[in-house]
């Protein structure tokens, strides 16, 4: 069976995902886990945590470069940076080579917020993993290297 209910009047038919489709099952599982482990108590959304985490990891970065790294549109990143700045988690630093541009840099509060958010998420994941029988937990552990490689491949595209 194919789907033909495409937006914008396109006529390209997409195959229906099957229950045994690895990519479909994986996407559903990731989505469910993600919903169960967010947001943090201080109200930092997943998008803010992701952007702030990238800023902490990379160091100073231009908003446009951050938007590309996070795979979001420039206006979205502008809003995220403004929100992070309003919360005191990042600051702007002028670009010495281009007066029209600036770098975004994490503040000490931003670094602390990322550490706290990662710790809280890890605690929630640990609680989910504790519910698994030993053989399924072993399978998850065995899959970590491949999952990390897949996540890095997505970043380098």
From TrEMBL:
Name by which UniProt lists this protein: MarR family transcriptional regulator
Protein's UniProt keywords contain Transcription: yes
Keyword terms, alphabetized: DNA-binding, Transcription, Transcription regulation
PROSITE patterns: HTH_MARR_1, HTH_MARR_2
Pfam families: MarR
Organismal lineage: Bacteria, Bacillati, Actinomycetota, Actinomycetes, Micrococcales
Annotated organism of origin: Gryllotalpicola kribbensis
SUPFAM superfamilies (alphabetical): Winged helix' DNA-binding domain
Record-annotated HTH marR-type domain positions: 19-149
